[in-house]
Amino acid sequence: MDFFNVCNALYKYCKKPTIAVHYKGERLKRLLEQRWTGHLATVSVILNNFEEITSLLTEIDSVRAHGPELRMEAVGLLREISTPSFLFIANLVHEVLALLDPPNKLLQREDTDLWTGLSIVTSAKVCMQKLRCVEGFTKVWEKARAAANALPKSTTPKRRRTGNKNMDDYLVEETTGQREDDVETELKRLYYSTVDSVVGEMDQRFSEQNSHLYRALAVLDPESDLFLDPETVKCIMDLTQSPICYAEFEVAKNFLRSQKESKTEGDNWTTKLILSKYHKALQTMPSVLTAFKHALTFGASTAMCENSFSSLRNVFSDHRRSMLHKRKAQLVQLAFERDLTRKCTTEWKDTVLRRFNVRTRRLQLF
């Protein structure tokens, strides 16, 4: 049975009312196939509450009042999650997706820039490459085997196994035909192939094809040695079809460096700080101001990002290429309505009530 199918079956089983009343651990997460963050949340809850889950399944199996169907399902789930292979895959998935969680959170924020996000992605990829070693596999394997050994031993099978008496007078040294490798060897192959697939996917999505754009974003960082180099910034200006003036970049470079040297309080110089603090001065240099804005708000639509980085691209791939798709347009409308609702219940609450109360109304406010 597939690993995530077992996780999904476990969630549906624990969600049943007759089972949920006996479960004392953290509520299991529903598996969201469209987002890998759903896989991380599901595996995290299972690993953190593994003892409670196994205790629940063991209790259901031992009590006859639950009925044969629930008991049979509990026995099957307990047998699946108690295997070392299941525990190994669970720890491996958690190890891999936990490294991708920081860049995912950073890239989803509204106040981040693409260069900072790419730096975190590069760091996550380096950490992912370090997992491809014998020590990394041994760590995950030992953790899974320790969890499997900590489980109570299963009862003896009802069917008693007996040896073949026809081979009593012979000595069997080896078998012929296809040989089955042990579990550890198979899991080692799975471990290395998983790490290689993730690293290869990251290399493909953040490849050298866009390296010139990365360098353009890097020189717009105030801490860069090539800060405001017009030749490097030109590619991102050409991408957005914005004019560039080399003289403005030279003046802005000298101006900002002099301002940075004159400050003694040790401000953390960022692109966002420059735009907010020296916006009036940069208005006289429109090409530089445009470049800084590009560094903070990269020209990529929501549809392009979703089709490029999300597993949702596999759904309706021929029709979900732009925001003209009906479902995406509705998602945008719901996002705006949620933002307006949040503001009406918090910061706009007093203003709305005051405006409603000052006019002639038939409804009286209490």
UniProtKB/TrEMBL annotation:
SUPFAM superfamilies: Ribonuclease H-like. It comes from the Eukaryota. This is Zinc finger MYM-type 1-like protein. It holds the Pfam family Dimer_Tnp_hAT. One of its GO terms (molecular function) is protein dimerization activity. Residues 264-332 form the HAT C-terminal dimerisation domain. PANTHER family: 52 KDA REPRESSOR OF THE INHIBITOR OF THE PROTEIN KINASE-LIKE PROTEIN-RELATED, DUF4371 DOMAIN-CONTAINING PROTEIN. InterPro entries: HATC_C_dom (IPR008906), IFN-induced_PKR_regulator (IPR052958), RNaseH-like_sf (IPR012337).
